[in-house]
Design a protein that fits this description.
19 strands; four-stranded antiparallel sheet; binds zinc ion; 30 helices
């Protein structure tokens, strides 16, 4: 049912017809809402806050009526703390709260999120602490502000292993723990795998950097099938609404003018499948479901498209829903401002587990019970402008209705009277601003949790993968005295976003033109030359790319980035000697540079210098023993060199470490074929083809079967191969055709 066309059971136009919510069971068993309460409605779901408001603005009788309804319905406030509950945490990447039906959006289609809100507790004003995926998830998982968990940006930080995470706590309590993430930003190498028995971050189909909700679902579903009676904590992360906005059919057509809404609708559909699975397993009454966004998204407001640069509400306000049948009240809405750091302590409280000292968030249960309605103060920050663009980082504080932002040109907004943050009242409200500035300083100083932090250096492969997610580096990441305010860089920001868009579209010439322009604006920054050279290399203009990098090296000699890019460019251009020289320069600056070591090994291997190549491979593996790229290439090198047992050992290890990747199985199969062990070759190649059908697996399967004398099967696989030999070389296609003809003749004899 789930890959089929989704039924439009939910019609936004019908949203507000009914005064009271009504649940409808759709033919597939999912419960869709067909009527919903409007925000601020005086229906029973509105809760105590509305009672107070009404008492002020209307009349006492109305208020008394509402309070009475709340009182008569015990499920409204009752909470059953229960350590036997399972926890399903669903995080929605890049999902703005105000693009979801239950948050009042009429043009989208989110029946399943709306149903969760309807059956649970919805926080109307939940704030992310950082508008970036990895730091924000670290805040969710540790219940701490970024200055404490010390992960301030994607890619260049790792959550230190001494940090306490929700997964660690629940694992220690005996829960089975599993995570299924959909973006490379959350790859296990960045530390969030702490405490998880299973951490599934494999993205093999389509992109090495992300996967769609529909690719994640079967992995989650298989895992849940393996869970028997144990309690579990399962984290499912959806990445679909992130740029580029490109929903799959039928959402592509249905939301052709609003593709972001289409991505959200598609994600919601898969959330429906996840909930259906929970229901199928009879776990609905035994599972706490928590849905949280990691940050929002800007659509051009305040000059930003995407997220990460600014600290305005559209990038910080996220959906937050808690739902647990018979344990939490249903259709409850909570208006006060709360934070993502409160998610973890709230989950622990619902499970009746003690809250650790290091957690800075608080349990939201008093809010759910209606005993508390004070806004919670939130620290906010983004280092992205500094670390990726060479501009000033931004810090801020949200306190009651006010937001203060510390920047070269400071900002203060009244979120109540000016929710779009269009009027900076920093100068007018100087006293308020100065008080908030003081609180911000105090908060960051006093709340610091000691512990290690892990800044890390990206490999070339990681840079590529982040680039494909839209996180491009335009800065050398050296702190600049008097760095410009991001607000004053809107023209450059637009150019950067346009260049990214061209890269997404594969229009590398247009991207190169823009990078050329940016280079003239930032001639002293290595990243400017790097970006331009990369775009030029992608148009296959290697000479121009090499020229650009050489120009950069004249300005900034000994730049590690530029030298290693030069080495790579020489390598792909087939200029092996020069590649080696450039990489040798990189290794003089940084002897542990993994890409320089790997590229040198490959170049030396290509030149037939086997001993030296082997030495470089081993040096690279001493730096990063689990590096998949290096291991794969090393095993290939060993196989070609006739060192089959060593190659088999490495490939076997890779098949165990990456069981959802077809490539290690394929290479292992080919290696067995090289020594005539066709049974093992066929076994591994079939496994590879079952993970992901590919011409290469079909070809080698056919050859192995032919060698074994199974001509009928060989014919079948050659035909499959020739059906779609995309990416294959002409000589191999010809050879396959000839072999097929030959086998058919043999069969006819
Ligand atoms: Zn994110």
């Amino acid at each position: 049912m789930f890959f089929g066309r989704c039924e439009r059971v939910f019609c936004p136009h019908r949203l507000f017809r009914r005064r009271f919510p009504r649940l409808l069971t759709a033919p597939n068993g999912l419960r869709y809402i067909t009527g919903m309460k409007r925000r601020g409605d005086s229906s029973p779901g509105a809760g105590i806050r509305h009672a107070a408001e009404k008492a002020n603005s209307y009349n006492y009788a109305a208020a008394a009526f509402i309070v009475l309804i709340s009182f008569l319905n015990p499920s409204k406030t009752s909470i059953v703390r229960d350590p036997t509950l399972n926890v399903l945490l669903i995080t929605l990447d890049t999902t703005r709260a105000d693009r979801i039906g239950c948050y009042g959006y009429l043009q989208g289609r989110t029946p399943n999120l709306d149903a969760l809100a309807q059956n649970g507790v919805r926080f109307e004003n939940a704030y992310a602490q950082v508008p970036l995926t990895l730091p924000s998830h670290c805040s969710i998982m540790t219940g701490t502000f970024p200055f404490s968990h010390a992960v301030h940006n994607n890619a260049v930080y790792t959550l230190a292993s001494d940090k306490l995470t929700l997964a660690k706590i629940l694992k220690a309590q005996g829960f089975k723990t599993a995570a299924f993430v959909s973006s490379f930003s959350l790859d296990s190498r960045f530390g969030l795998d702490l405490g998880f028995d299973v951490y599934d971050d494999n993205f093999q189909e389509g992109s090495p950097s992300e996967r769609r909700a529909g690719q994640l679902y079967p992995v989650f579903s298989n895992w849940l099938d393996g869970v028997k009676d144990e309690r579990f904590f399962c984290w499912v992360h959806f990445f679909d609404p992130h740029l580029p906005y490109n929903p799959p059919p039928p959402y592509r057509d249905q939301f052709s003018d609003r593709p972001y809404d289409g991505e959200v609708a598609y994600m919601d559909f898969v959330i429906g499948a996840v909930m259906e699975k929970i229901k199928e397993r009879n776990l609905l009454g035994r599972t706490l479901v928590v849905v949280a966004g990691d940050h929002g998204e800007a659509f051009g407001e305040k000059g930003e498209a995407g997220h990460g640069i600014f600290l305005y509400d559209m990038a910080l306000k996220v959906p937050l829903i808690f739902s647990a049948e018979n344990h939490l009240p249903a259709h409850k809405e909570i208006p006060p401002r709360v934070r993502l750091i409160d998610v973890m302590p709230t989950i622990l409280d619902i499970l009746n587990f003690p809250r650790s000292e290091s957690i800075q968030g608080i349990s939201l249960i008093p809010y759910i019970q209606g005993n508390q309605n004070e806004d919670l103060e939130s620290y906010i920050e983004t280092y992205y402008p500094q670390e990726n663009l060479g501009w000033a980082p931004l810090f801020g504080l949200i306190s009651r209705d006010w937001k203060y932002i510390r920047a070269p040109r400071e900002e203060l907004y009244n979120l109540k009277s000016d929710p779009d943050e269009t009027r900076n009242v920093f100068v007018v409200e100087r006293k308020k601003a100065s008080a908030m500035k003081g609180s911000l300083d105090k908060m960051t100083k006093e709340s610091l949790v000691p512990g290690s932090s892990g800044k890390r250096v990206l490999t070339a492969d990681e840079q590529e993968r982040f680039r494909s997610l839209g996180y491009v580096n335009y800065s050398d990441n050296t702190p600049v005295v008097e760095a410009p305010d991001p607000k004053d860089k809107l023209d450059e920001l637009k150019m950067i976003r346009d260049a990214e868009e061209f890269e997404f579209e594969g229009n590398f010439q247009a991207a190169a033109d823009l990078h050329q322009k940016m280079l003239s604006l930032r001639p002293g920054v290595a990243a400017s030359y790097d970006n331009l050279a990369l775009a030029q290399a992608r148009t296959k203009n290697f000479d121009a790319a090499i020229q650009t990098l050489k120009q950069g090296l004249e300005k900034i000699p000994h730049s590690e980035i530029l030298l290693s890019r030069l080495g790579h460019t020489y390598l792909v251009a087939g200029r092996t000697d020069e590649a080696l020289t450039a990489m040798a320069e990189v290794l003089k600056i940084n002897p542990q540079h993994i890409d320089a070591l790997a590229a040198s090994a490959l170049a030396l291997g290509n030149m037939g210098k086997k001993e030296e190549a082997r030495e470089y491979f081993e040096r690279a593996l001493a730096v990063d023993p689990g590096n998949k790229f290096v291991l794969t290439n090393y095993a290939n090198f060993l196989a070609v060199d006739g060192k089959i047992p060593e190659a088999v050992e490495i490939f076997t290890r890779l098949t165990q470490d990456f069981p959802q990747d077809d490539k290690p199985f394929q290479l292992l199969g080919i290696t067995y074929g090289m020594i005539g062990d066709y049974d093992k070759a066929i076994e591994n190649l079939k496994k590879a083809a079952s993970i992901k059908p590919s011409p290469s697996s079909y070809y080698y399967l056919a050859i192995s079967l032919k060698e074994k004398g199974d001509f009928a099967e060989a014919v079948r696989y050659l035909e499959l191969y020739l059906e779609d030999p995309k990416g294959e070389t002409e000589p191999r296609i010809k050879k396959a055709q000839a072999t097929l003809e030959h086998l058919k003749k043999l069969r006819n004899k």
